Amino acid sequence: VGMLTQLSDPSKVFTIFLPDDLAFAAFGIPSAAVIAALPITSVGGIVSYAIIPGEQFTSASIPNIFPNLQLPTAITLGPLLGAIPLQLSTFPSTRASDFWDNNIPVKTRDLKFKNGVVHVVSKVVAPPSQLLRDALYNNPNLTYFKAAVAKADEGQTGLSRFDSLLNYPVVNMTVLAPDDAAFQGLLYGLIYGALLQQNVPMGTAAAQAAALSSSPDVFTNPAVSAVLTPLAVRGIIAYHLLATPNPKTNAFEPNIRVFSVNFPPGPSFITTLVNSSFAPHPGILVNTTFTGLVVSDLTFTGLGTFPPGGGNFAGTAANVITADNHAVNGVYYVIDKVLLPQ
């Protein structure tokens, strides 16, 4: 794929997260013959994403920070922002004696060579190919999430719009995206409760709530505009974007790409974009279970409950349906409940 000359140059240095034959097999590539049959661009992407040019990072030089270290790889996507080329990043991390690249465990570390250092990974670390916006909006199980983002963006401009953030290539974001069933359940409850407050009989209220919540078009239905206001929906979406303070301004920004292995073991609290408007908010309760270097269970619990009135973080935890869905500008998780910030 055109990298051999560079890798053979003793005047250059590299860090390589190298997949061996077993790693390729675990990725679904069992032989060199399969490699030979793949498009050159696909193979080039795998090779280039494994290579960090210009520096040697031993495992000891990867800091134990939350969530990870961001390093530019040999993949350049071209001028996505005017004339500025975008280098795809990879995200190595350590904790105690553990070591990963993105969410892939390193099984052999610190192999020193004349022009670099190699870490052998247990599976191919695949480069992302889509922006978060495309990945989320093209997921057939996230149609309500897409509609909720559009509702939350009403009246907003520029990067104040969630849609724009998801489509901005140079950010690092972590998105918790409730699936369609999760949104349907919450919307049914909200609409049903509002109808009962209007003295609609229970049977009629249940039927109307079921009909209204059966389609993501509910977010633009004027019949429920008083329930699903842009402000209320915006608060919910903001609670599903992880965020930390900008060290220069202390303003909370959606600026971290958290893979499942980056969450601390056991229960912990992670702040979200809600903290940008209410800094003391405790955030989201995350509970992570590790089996070796792999996360075997991961749940998220919101502060609020539905119906309202329950204790803080007393609601049922959201389970992860799919984790570590990697995009150019972040990572997203599909979860089975909508998290409520209050």
List its traits.
single chain, 342 residues, 6-stranded mixed beta sheet
The end-to-end span amounts to 52 Å
- The total strand number stands at 16
Q: What is the N-to-C order of secondary-structure elements (H for helix, E for strand)?
A: HEHHHEEEEEEEHHHEHHHEEEEEEE
Shape: elongated
Oligomer state of the chains in this structure: single chain
Radius of gyration: 22 Å
Please, could you describe this protein's structure?
- 25% of the residues lie in helices and 29% in strands.
- With 342 residues, the protein is an alpha+beta fold.
- Strands 2-1-8-7-6-5 form a six-stranded mixed beta sheet.
- The mean pLDDT is 94.
Spell out the blueprint of helices and strands:
Blueprint: H1 4-7, E1 14-19, H2 21-26, H3 32-37, H4 40-49, E2 51-53, E3 71-81, E4 84-90, E5 92-95, E6 98-101, E7 104-113, E8 116-121, H5 132-137, H6 143-152, H7 162-166, E9 173-178, H8 180-197, H9 202-212, H10 230-238, E10 244-245, E11 252-253, E12 266-270, E13 284-291, E14 294-301, E15 318-327, E16 330-335
Summary of the model, kept short:
With 342 residues, this protein is α+β, with helices and mostly antiparallel strands. The chain is 25% helix and 29% strand. The chain has a six-stranded mixed beta sheet. A six-stranded mixed beta sheet has the order 9-16-15-14-13-12. Strands 3-4 form a two-stranded antiparallel ribbon.
